[in-house]
Amino acid sequence: MYKLDKHIVQSSYWEKIKNSTGAKVVNVDGLVCILSKIPFINFYIAYVPKISPDKINFDELKKVALKKNIFVYRFDVPFVIKDSNNKKFVEFNKTLSENCVKSPTDTFTKYDILLDLQESEEEIFANFKSKTRYNINYAIKNEVKVKVAENDKDFDEFWDLMQSTAKRQHYYIRSREFYYTAWKIIKDDDKGAILTATYKGEALASWFLSFYKGAGNYMYGGSSTNHQNLQASSLLASESIKLAKQKGASYFDFWGSDKDLSNPSSKFYGVTRFKLGFGAEVVEYMDSYDFVVNSAVYKVFVLAYTLFRKFVELKR
User: Fold this and answer.
1) SS3 of 209-232
2) By three-state DSSP, how is residue 270 classified?
């Protein structure tokens, strides 16, 4: 049902964003690879997220690795839904399993929430859960407005909400420069937008969206604890879906889901239930794989990573 094409994090836009914000990036035969240096040694891990099921030139990857001191390419959560009836999945999984090893971890979540946008706006809205439709109408009735960011002042509303949400929920975010650069690059080519829900001029929730290769993506967002009863986030999500469809998207990607939908105490249970209220469904992507170029360095790296994870777990 979902026509997954090239993901935006494997696009020339993302390559430009990462280069413009100080990352070390190499493009190997069309694959956007972000290099991270390993502490104390002169070797790099190449992070290659969300690759599509295209032919991979492993020989070229090896050549570049020797020049750039890359010991492993991490194909993090390839952009293919796990489905044994899907020929693309079966063939690509076979290719990766024959040339790579399973990664010890995923950076992107393997579980995602997608919404089909191929029906009319009216049909899409009708498929929202009744509680979600009620919340949207309640926000409209109480004069919550949604606007598209046009200037630096509008961007700073998004940034302030991002910062406050990250602080409240204890997660890491990048610098203002990164998000601002990303916004300018994709906005200027009509490949993205920031939408903000406001009440009497006060910003209550804001989403950073991208539109690329048939996908409308939620990428980043934040919200205020003020006026939560007004259901601003519900209206914001609805308007984001509507805008993605207007931009030609055939599906909306809510970017991440909780694995266990039956556990109310799970960290992301609430936000996952919120997303599912829009008639979307949970999908699982294929496993992450590591293409190892220098096995000696890789073994040390995996051992060090395993010990670090155990240490972090003990500290909790």
Assistant:
1) EEEECCEEEEEEEEECCCCHHHCH
2) helix
Kindly report the pTM of this predicted structure. 0.94
Q: Would you tell me how many other CB atoms lie within 10 Å of the CB of residue 297?
A: 19
Short-list 243, 255, 275, CA closest to 121: 243
Give all strands of the β-sheet with 202-212 in edge-to-edge order: 145-148, 192-199, 202-212, 215-223, 251-253, 111-116, 281-284
Domains of the chain: 8-107+286-315 (no CATH), 112-283 (3.40.630.30)
Query: Which whole-number Å values give the CA distances from 159 to 124, 136, 196, 206, 301, in the listed order?
Result: 30, 24, 11, 9, 35
CB 232 within 8 A of CB 139: yes
Q: How far, in Å, CA of 241 to CA of 79, rounded?
A: 21
pLDDT tens per residue across all 316 residues of the chain: 788 999 999 999 999 999 999 999 999 999 999 999 998 889 999 999 999 998 899 999 999 999 999 999 999 999 999 999 999 999 999 999 999 999 999 999 899 999 999 999 999 999 999 999 999 999 999 999 999 999 999 999 999 999 999 999 989 999 999 999 999 999 999 999 999 999 999 999 999 999 999 999 999 999 999 999 999 999 999 999 999 999 999 999 999 887 777 788 777 888 999 999 999 999 999 999 999 999 999 999 999 878 767 665 665 5
CA distance 45 to 297: 10
Say which amino acid occupies 85.
N
Q: What are 301's two structure tokens?
A: 């790296």
Q: Which DSSP state fits 123?
A: H
Distance CA 111, CA 271 (A): 13
